[in-house]
Amino acid sequence: MAGLLLDSHTALWLVTAPSRLSQAALEACTDPDASVVLSVASIWELEYKAALGKLTLPTDIWDALVDSGVSVLPVLRNHALLAAHLPLHHRDPFDRMLVAQARAEGLGLVTADRQLSAYNIPTLW
User: Fold this and answer.
1) Residues 73-103: pLDDT tens digits?
2) 37 and which of 9, 44, 73, 117 could share a cystine (Cβ 3.0–4.6 Å)?
3) Which CATH number belongs to the domain containing residue 59 in this structure?
4) C-alpha to C-alpha distance for 109 and 103, rounded to whole angstroms
5) Assigned domain for 77 exists
6) pTM confidence score
7) How many independent structural domains does the chain possess?
8) How far is the CA of 116 from the CAs of 16, 17, 59, in angstroms?
9) Is 67 domain-assigned?
């Protein structure tokens, strides 16, 4: 895999509860030679869920991820179009965006969500 795209839960656990990650996911995400990216869609999803009271985010989570070498991937028009036209294996719009971004950018998706492998993208857990 040329690079790794963090699923939203992976990004959250990487900062707040690394023990919840599989050993393979933790090693891949913390490898200093790895290209690890976080979608702005994940930032939106986690902030939205925090605003709804579904989870609590550390105030420094985004700085902590960037400081650890994680790059931020914007949502581009081609990502949105691809996400809109994916098969309906999964209906979560945030996950569909991550699948589209992984496909468009040639990234592997670091996720515990086994349903996403139905999209024939490289996944790691």
Assistant:
1) 999 999 999 999 999 888 899 999 999 999 9
2) 73
3) 3.40.50.1010
4) 9
5) yes
6) 0.94
7) 1
8) 23, 22, 29
9) yes
The amino acid at residue 106 is G
Phi, psi of 113 (to 5 degrees): -80, 100
DSSP assignment of 106-118 equals T-EEE-S-GGGGG
Amino acid found at 79: H
CB atoms within 10 A of CB 76: 13
Are the C-beta atoms of residues 111 and 7 closer than 8 Å to each other?
yes
In a domain, 87, yes or no: yes
CA-to-CA distance for 71 and 20, rounded, in angstroms?
Answer: 22
Asked if residue 124 belongs to a domain, the reply is no
pLDDT at 105 over 90: yes
CB-CB contact of 73 with 79 (8 Å):
no
Mean pLDDT, rounded, of the chain: 96
What is the domain extent for residue 49? 4-119
Percent residues over pLDDT 90 in the chain: 94
